[in-house]
Amino acid sequence: MPKELLLQVTPEIAANESLLKDYLSKQIKVSPAEIQHVTILKRSIDARQKAIKINLKVVIYFKGEPFQETKIELPIYKDVSKAQEVIVVGAGPAGLFAALQLIELGLKPIVIERGKDVRGRRRDLKAINVDHLVNEDSNYCFGEGGAGTYSDGKLYTRSKKRGDVTRILELLVAFGASEDILVEAHPHIGTNKLPKIIEDIRNKIIEFGGQVLFDTRVTDILVKNNEVKGIVTQKGDTINANKLILATGHSARDIFELLDKKKIFIEAKPFALGVRAEHSQQLIDSIQYSCDYRGEHLPPAPYSIVKQVNGRGMYSFCMCPGGVIAPCATSPGEVVTNGWSPSKRDQVTANSGIVIELKLEDFKPFAKFGALAGMEFQKSIEQKAWHLAGETQKVPAQRMIDFTQNKVSSEIPKTSYVPGTTSVEMGQVFPGFLSQILREGFKEFGKSMRGYLTNEAILHAPESRTSSPVRIPRDPITYEHLQIKGLYPCGEGAGYAGGIISAAIDGEKCALMIAETLK
Q1: d(Cα 483, Cα 274) in Å, to the nearest integer?
Q2: For position 231, what pLDDT does the model report?
Q3: Would you call 54 helix, strand, or coil by DSSP?
């Protein structure tokens, strides 16, 4: 009978199948020849002690026992080309997984995406990095696959109570992701591998009768008697349907403005805002692994840190080991940062958003904008950064210790942020209370992670798109908008998700709720 074990081993043993078999044979007192196969179910790193260990959950199959490698396959999809239509606005994880679920349920998704397909987006990303030109419809946030496609593909989520995380991971594997994402404690696909997976999802949607329309921006939502009737695009086309999943992401400001203008109920939502800090990966490795050299069997070290400073939470966000910082503006006249890593996480720098939780009261100077007050607060900081950086996609930057001492850095070394940097006293970017919290917080971070507070670390500002500044309220049971029948606010943009996995789960749930109403 197969035997399941929890164990701690050295990184060398965890990385070598033969060494692992030998180790297990001694633990359970059998000959290595008696072990037919070892399946690793879960893997995580324990770096709390100087001698780093790998936690494993394994299943041992013994000689003579039936064993067969399981192949993860896609659900059985049927042709839905003539089925009832559901409009899905946005082709990020929420929209794409909603579309797949709709097909599985026998409904036809019409996916509306303002941006380009994954390949077409690359030219627009190059234009931001090299020419400082921002395409408002195609950039790091907008386009096929959403913000996650070209900003890392981190799959870790704390939202396990929201739905079936394993189902989403297995779907990604079936579409070409490595099976390692089913095993790792903090799974990650990588920006270099995600586009092909996204492309295959789109092709599957089309193969079974769904539609995917690129370069198609929604300019109006048709509503009659508080019920959805369809949408109008920037081309003047009308698409009719009485079910609409709105999965536009956290940066679709024009959609928030449209809803507000049409008096469709939305509300301001707190989010987090701060800077993106870049260190050398070797320094982070030495802090986290307590060693001068990481070694070949350990991945580049991440970090996660949380502090309470002046009654506010200050924490690391979207940490990218072996990664780079990217320009993520969605309109001309603003600067926004984010980070990503390739699948091997093999860049020489590590970066992380370091952000502070905001409160609704912080948006009072923008109260005249009502539900859009948080969005206008966010926009004002991004526009200020753009002006301070010379009205280009260069980013305001400062050495970390210089920032804590209110001192302009005399020079900024080259960082991974391709458009370049401008030396700025970061206090000019943020309101005074935020600058003060950041200064005190970095000193506290330095006490917890010896070596973290260093002038070799460069701060880039702002990190401002951590989550949506607006919530689109919906019924907690039916997922339908509280006011408009047939409207299903979904994913990060609606304020109900925070990452690829939770957004995908939310997309599936909206599709399930629609199918339930159509029974």
Answers
A1: 34
A2: 98
A3: strand
Please give the average per-residue pLDDT across 321-338, as a whole number.
Answer: 96
Tokens linked to 184:
């790792």
The 3-state DSSP composition of the chain as helix, strand, coil percent (nearest 5) reads: 30, 25, 45
Helix axes 373-388, 253-261, angle to 10 degrees: 140
**Distance, CA of 138 to CA of 118 (rounded, Å):** 10
Distance CA 40, CA 56 (A): 7
Angle at the Cα of 297 from the Cα atoms of 295 and 298, rounded to 5 degrees: 75
Length in residues, the chain? 519
Contact 88, 105 (CB under 8 A): no
Cα angle 61, 66, 72; round to 5: 85
Nearest of 394, 332, 331 to residue 141 by alpha carbon:
331
The tens digit of pLDDT for each residue in 410-449 reads 999 999 999 999 999 999 999 999 999 999 999 999 999 9
CA distance 322 to 403: 24
pLDDT band at 160 (very low <50, low <70, confident <90, very high): low
Residues 374 and 269: beta-carbon distance below 8 Å: yes
Consecutive H or E run containing 353: strand 349-357
Measure CA of the first residue to CA of the last residue in the chain; give whole Å: 44
Do the beta carbons of residue 196 and residue 176 sit within 8 Å? yes
CA distance linking residue 475 with residue 237, whole number of Å: 30
CA 519 to CA 507: how far, in whole Å? 19
Q: What is the gyration radius of the CA atoms in the chain, in angstroms?
A: 24
Q: How many CA atoms lie within 13 A of 387 on its CB side?
A: 8
- Which band of pLDDT confidence, cut at 50, 70 and 90, is reported for residue 271? very high
What's the maximum distance between 2 C-alpha atoms anywhere in the chain? 75
Query: pTM of the predicted model, to two decimals?
Result: 0.95
- Torsion angle defined by CA atoms of residues 256, 257, 259 and 261, in that order, rounded to the nearest 10 degrees: 160
Q: Other CB atoms closer than 10 Å to residue 207's CB: what's the count? A: 11
Phi, psi of 62 (to 5 degrees): -95, 160
Cα separation, 250 vs 217, whole angstroms: 16
CB 121 within 8 A of CB 127: no
In Å, what is the CA distance from 459 to each residue of 289, 317, 318, 409, 447?
Answer: 23, 14, 15, 11, 18
Burial classification of residue 313, based on how many CB atoms lie within 10 Å of its CB (0-12 exposed, 13-18 middle, 19 or more buried): middle
The neighbouring-strand residues paired with 353 are 276, 317
Q: Which residues is 228 bridged to in the sheet?
A: 223
